[in-house]
Amino acid sequence: MHADSGAAQQAAPTFNAGNAAYRAGHWQDALGHYEAALALHPGMAAAALQRARCLVQLQQWLPAREAFAVTLRMGPVPNDLGQQAIHYSAWLEAGHLCRQTGQEQQALQAYQRALQLAPQRHEAPLALARVLEAGGQWDAAARAYQEALQCAATQGTGRVREVHLHMARYRLERGDAERAQLSLQAALTQADALADSPDDAAEIRIDIGECLLRLGRREEALATWTLASQATREPTLARLAALSYHFNLWQDAIDVSRRNVALHPASAWAHWNLAYVLNQCWHMDEAQTVLLQAEALAPLPGAAELRASMAARRGDADAALLQYLALAEAPDATVVHKASTAMCALYSDRLSAEAVADLHRRLFAPLGVGARSPQGFQRAPLQGRRIRLGLVSQDFHHHHPVNLFMQPVLREFDRSRFEVFVYCTGTTYDAQTERARQRCDHWLQVSHLSNAQLARQIDSDGIDVLLDQAGPTDPQRLGLYAQRAAPVQASYLGYPSSSGLPQMDWIIGDAVVTPVGHEAQYSERIARLPGTVFCYAPEADYPYPAYPAAHARRPLTFGSFNNLPKLTPHTLLLWAQVLAAVPGSRLLLKAPSLGDATAVCLLGERLQALGVDLARVEFRGPVLLSEMMAEYADVDIALDPVPYNGGTTTLQALWMGVPVICKRGSSFVSRMGASFMAAAGLPEWVAEDDAGYVRIAVKQARNRQALLALKQGLRARLQSLPAWDVVQHTRNLEAALEAMCMEAFAGQAQSSSPAAISGNNTSV
What we know:
Elements: H1 2-23, H2 27-40, H3 45-57, H4 61-74, H5 81-100, H6 104-117, H7 123-134, H8 138-153, H9 157-173, H10 177-193, H11 198-214, H12 218-228, H13 234-246, H14 250-263, H15 268-280, H16 284-297, H17 303-313, H18 317-328, H19 335-345, H20 353-364, E1 387-393, H21 401-412, E2 418-424, H22 431-438, E3 442-445, H23 451-460, E4 465-468, H24 478-482, E5 488-491, E6 506-510, E7 525-529, E8 557-560, H25 569-581, E9 586-590, H26 597-609, E10 617-620, H27 625-631, E11 637-639, H28 648-655, E12 660-663, H29 672-679, E13 686-687, H30 690-702, H31 704-712, H32 714-719, H33 726-745
Helix pairs in contact: 1-2, 2-3, 3-4, 3-5, 4-5, 5-6, 5-7, 6-7, 7-8, 7-9, 8-9, 9-10, 10-11, 11-12, 11-13, 13-14, 13-15, 14-15, 15-16, 16-17, 17-18, 18-19, 19-20, 25-30
């Protein structure tokens, strides 16, 4: 006993130093101190527990599990409440770790052991309820939830409210908005009973509003958020503004942000949040003014990134790229900085296709250091079973392009050959999200999982081939693919360029966007689908315009419905030349940003500088998608931007009877238009250079009757072609995926998955 006391005294300073480092978030330093303390006093349970916690923070999952087991093997000392509390925490947190790494049964066992140690505490039954609900054990989960509430009630109404809030968050994490709303309503009742501050109640109402939006109860959600907007606390209003923007309530986001600034005029962050929202909503001039006001109050580390975004939104991709590059090459660069740089490069008029490819490799290849080998996965032979296909996406919602293209493919997948898992990394829910959920075999809400946790889930599900449908547009998930989460990984639809990741095995393209001879532009191998890689088969009914004879007698109207960043200086110069070469013609420009007068003014000034008479130009802002599709009737010929071609907008134009003039570039992103027009049997609409682009405009504008005849029958033409047959497209995609798997698994040595870690006496 005396020896233990002496060892404890000797280890105490080192243990305390570890605590200081831990509180500061210096996990590696803290780990070193705790290990040193344990070397001095091996029986120091508090240091053993803290060591396990450090390993969790460092995402060293298997060592962390063993560290918890070491702590638990020390055992609680009878009548020592402090030691029993350590033991309780170790069981509880070991359970959390097991749950996070997909070991639900072991998590349940750990929580039950914690509950036995301290039946009066609410954390263990609450954790049990969470895991039981995730496993569909609803009755047992309800009992555990009720037990957690009863335990919390002995500690006051405030603790009961916390239990409801925690349960609501858990339910939202797995996408169960209906049950989450019930917990939140209960929490709000408790808040009212406690006469909480309006801000505390507003925080709950913000969450309730999000649930209601996910459930499609828009009017109730807006009424709830209107009540929440009466809050006065700065972080509360900032969160409400961010969620409003996230759910496309742009004006509400701006109004709440303005109120935040009015209430907190000395806050740099209130100004910053307003500047950010204004920029996102295309009010760039005002955003710049507010950003300057924010910087006058305090230095802001994100100011350079926001200015780069402003430049990109103004269509000055080269200026934006220089600013993003400076951020991406800084010592403290984040993956978000790198992703923004990569995406901006696709818009540049100055970078060659090879330079863009090299930039992607330079930015993202380092993420794959220490990646898992493709041979490190255990999979059953393919013969006699379905291929397990995983789709990782945050975009199954509203009118996102990935959702528009993937919904019909999900509908048509051959379930006798493929078992489809969707890993939803997003948090936006609507009717389209629910439709996608119904169309897959397994839907997993994984937005709350780290990349390491998600990789463990994907491997546990036995995924054979994993599709990335975002690329740098979802930067936080790039590490998932870089460290390899499946034996076969492929990029499809979400990003029109190479990922730059050596671990991305394939990019799915076609013979035009990824032609033979362009292999050096890709870190991936190329799988070429027949026709075009994008199959546009909309499920919504968009009435086809009549296009009567009078259309051939009106002034010819060129048009573009592309977002403003695609309207590069090169693009606008090209379009100015088209207008000059076709006297009397007009130009209709439509984009979300053009609902803002300052954006219209900016674009108008750029066109005027190129000699365009603005009397010949019409600017239109955003409307509902069905209304936007109808507006194509006002366009005779669409003009494709360069170098970043239209994707969804070009296919929508064709679907509504509007042929598109495009220029064949040297990269995936600049050859999409050529791919679409070739698949439509209209190669004469594809130019090889700028002069050819203008010549095509002149030629096609000259014969209005031939143009009218083409427009009148264009949709029927498309529907008769293989590239617009989504059933055949899905069969082609399935064949490509099957070939990837057959090649990868042919003769592959089967390796075992990592064994579960267990202590000598205690299993965690």
